[in-house]
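Researcher: Here's my situation. A collaborator sent me these components and asked whether they could plausibly form a single complex. I don't have experimental data yet, so a predicted model of the whole assembly would be a useful starting point for our discussion.
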Amino acid sequence: MQNVVLQSSVAFAQTSLKPELGFINGMAIANRYADPDVESRHAAKLTICDVSCLSRFAIKGPAAADTLKAKGVELPASANSWSRHDETLVMRLGSSEFLLEDPIGVQQCKGLSEQLQSGDGVHVVLRNDASFILSGELLDELLAQVCAIDLSGPMLADNRLAMTSIAGVSVIVLRQEVAGQSLMRLWCDGTFGVYLWETLLDIIKELGGGPVGFNQFFNSN
Amino acid sequence: MTLRIAEQENEWINRDMPLTFEYEGQQIEAYEGDTISSALWAADIKVLGRSFKYHRARGLLSFANHDVNALMTDGQDTNIRADVIPVTHGMQLTAVNTDGGVLKDKGRYIDKISAFLPVGFYYKTFHKPKWMFPFWEDKIRKAAGLGKVNFNYPRITRAKRYAHCDVLVVGAGASGLSAALEAADAGSQVILVDENRKIGGSLTYDMAADVNTGSLLKQLTENVLNHPNIRVIADAYAGGYYTDHLVPIVEKRGITKVRAGSIIVASGVFEQPPVFRYNDLPGVMLSSAAQRLVNRYSVKPFTKGIVVTANDYGYRAALDLAAANVEIVAVIDMRQTGADGDLTAKVKQAGIAVHLGSCIYEVVPTSDKMGVSAVVVCAYDEATAEADLHQQVVLHCDGVAMSAGWAPAAALLYQAGTQMRYDEAVQQFVPNQLPDGVFAAGKVNGIFELEQRMLDGKRAGAEASRYLGKTTVSPVEVTAHRGNSPSHPYPIVNHPKAKNFVDFDEDIQVKDFINAAKEGFDNIELMKRFTTVGMGPSQGKHSNMNAIRILARIRDLPVEKIGSTTARPFFHPTPIGHLGGRGFHPHRLTAMHEWHVKEGAVMMEAGVWMRPAYYLPAGVKISNQQAVQQEALAVRKSAGMIDGSTLGKIEVFGKDAAAFLERFYTGKFASQKVGNSRIAMLLDEAGVIVDDGVAVRLDQDKFYVSTNSSNAATVYREMQRNLQLWGMQVTLVNLTGVMSAMTLAGPSSRSILSEVTELDLLDEAFPQGAYREALVAGVKARVMRVAFVSDLAFEIHVPSSAGLHVWQKIMDAGKTYGIRPFGTDAQRLLRLEMGHHLISHDTDGLTNPFEAHADSLVAMDKPFFIGQRSLKILQKKPLKKKLVRFVLDTNFSEMPKECNLVIENGEIAGRVTSISFSEYVNRVIGFAFVLPEQAKAGNQFAIRTDSGRMEMAEVVEDAFLSLSQG
């Protein structure tokens, strides 16, 4: 068995920023780009953080909901909404499609990946998400420049999520609290990750913000 | 001399911030907040530009963003609207459309020969004699246009924003402010937009010397600015109306696309000039322009002036001017009946004479024809529009303020689909039937009296709230207009010597309309195009209404029967940079992109993907053609690897998976064994080939299908669509971006791959077309034996996050074998050598399988597949073309190119679809469409090159590799 180093799909865009790297779930991830004070200022103003390294599990098919329930996973009641099962984020993308994501230190997704296989009416779906946190006081100004729908209002209230287009890329977005901060989560096809990171970061920098590393929101140590 | 006056209560200039700028070489002093025009006017400079056609001297007209004869260039920017653009320190301005400066413009001679340039002259004059047309075309092109395009203009990215609100209010005058407050009080989120730097609309300049106006303005402004539910966007205009209440707001920083729940249009009206001889001279301006000068910028429009009016508004203007110590010689009222008694009394109290039933017959220009020295006042017959020269008086003055009426700023309403009607009470088009969610308020709605305007705004705000479901909001009643009409039905004064201008953009006079009608252009749309009225930069904002009135009188029809034209979005000129804005051009990168870049890959766009075309590593001195040949030779002699992550990859699973593929593709899949692959060719309903890929059977109810790189999204979408139509139990998962793929090809590929996997790769265990799952470089991989670019090749699919790792490990393992990465250019050559055509490259939007020797992939005996019905029809018809492999004669002189034509007996018989020199085969090889009778192996055919030479080629049957192998 060889030692496999997984790459964030956004890694190429981050190379020139010379980040301090860490390894989460086998993936090299940018832990920090700058002095913590600078990153804190970015986080308060406007920032983007690559969290593609978080573990995910996706399942699809007419029996998907029952399969997850049988494993004791509490599901959001309706499509296009999310909930927490313990600490795991459970997103219901449709009536029969789910995406789960573990925070650091939680093994729910890994467990499900090992326990569940595709079968009658259920399909375990491979994913390669580029996943970002967007936050800061100018978040709505950023969203106003990249998204045609109003993500600041009720669209994402009450644990709703939206599948929409940001800067021309199909994404899943929701709002949540991480480390006491209200922020936006975003997932897109990883092959668009570099483009979306660069596009969003360009605007973020114009607005006086900057990137932050994984450690800004999670303790990877 | 300065025309600047003492500080006015609500002036917009900052006297603490003086500045200087240059105009036509002259240093001018101004204040921060001045527009270019106000600063020049304050400095007693009144020639602000030259007219477009006759190059007549022009000054202020509207002072409201429509003074298209006062456009400036400041070096980088051109066509700067001097009437509204703030002047800044250090500006170096010149007027556009002059030759030799605004005062000594050489083009002014055209005014002297204007009699020879009648309406429509350029339609009729320059095409006879025909040989003279190039001469005239050159002259006309040079004369056309305003300003000069700066081809070195920097690209400045303007962000495009989206905004959302419950109610969008366009116009922040008295009615708009009231509407915004009413809607906001009801709980709606309101965006209020206004083109002026400060909100308030006419409250900021139309005072009629009443001090209460300022108090009202202050109160309304404070209420709006302090309201938590109202967002004010000033110094911006609503550029158009689009479906579902989408309105682009154009600001200096860029465009904001506002999606509103409802819209209230309170955009007001454009003042319309009365028409009399020399109404265009510098110093003659609309009354509202004079009021703006005085009350916003503290500048006198003139020192001793005349107010000519055809409504009560002129009296209000006279009072404002008199209050600012401008000497008003007289108010010339074109109506016999005069104004409201109270207004008349106030004007007379101010010492101003009032002449009823009179008109300005003509303005007497100064000797240089660049100003006003006097006006000739005559008795006026409203019925005939004629002046009675027997009753005339000459009044000396240096300026004229003119009022005749208003035209609604209704562009947004028209664009939204509002039905308008002509209201005789106000002599104006007003909304008759508004679309759902669109409301009008204030002057644009035909409501003019201040209190009623505010009430009308409140009504619109209440109606918008109720439309949005706030049904508890009480409706508001508004009284229709009473009293004198704010607009005169025909404020025109005929003059035998003309120069009584209707359109100041295009120098169109009353006689031009009469002549156009005589020539048969007596429909408003035809007349517009023949006379060009309303086709200048101001788009008829101060000319269309008079044009309609003139045409109505010519045809003896009511104005309503003439109708009006619609200004399309954007209704005001908008910079192209704003329209372009920040562009989003999504592109996809594979997991190995970083590696490719480091290794010198020259990237190309392949659909939305970035792919290596070929590699030119640093320090290697070879041409791109050499690089391609070397990459291809590496595959033939040892091994090469290409990043194939861009292939479409779709999982199809469910109990109907095989049956679904049978219907979707041309081949058979029900009998396909698990662990095997088959070619999957997709047709459209017309039987045209649209894609080919490979379908691997992973399990009885699970397939893994690949598509061409550029077709992944299309094929997936078609699968989803047909799945819905057919109602089959199948689930689709698009893994295109999830799985990285790489093809390791060449005679050493098996040896190299065996160093990173324990999978048995020998032919017996892993034959052509087989599929296996195994660890490759420690990563769970899907491996296929393929033969697209080489007889021995392995396609390896792994999760994208491990793509770079696996790629690197294989490249490391291949070093001792001389492995090379190869790009898409080499791939195209390699597949050509193998004799494989590329869908959409060697085929086109008309090619069916029978023409592309793909018959064997079509199972016509199936009950159904997409395109089968068309193929059954095509099968019975003779072929029109056939795709063949060919080699070029070794003695060719000129290398043909793709798309060069195949010629047979002087006729087009086909075309080259692919062609390339193969170093390995040592021949030029390719694909071409030829006539079916030319398709037999050994047949010779001719290809016509770009220069017209005929090069001979020969049809070959087998793969080109056999040529090399002897």
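Model: Some features of this prediction you could bring to your collaborator: The mean pLDDT of chain B is 95. The longest helix of chain B spans residues 450-467.
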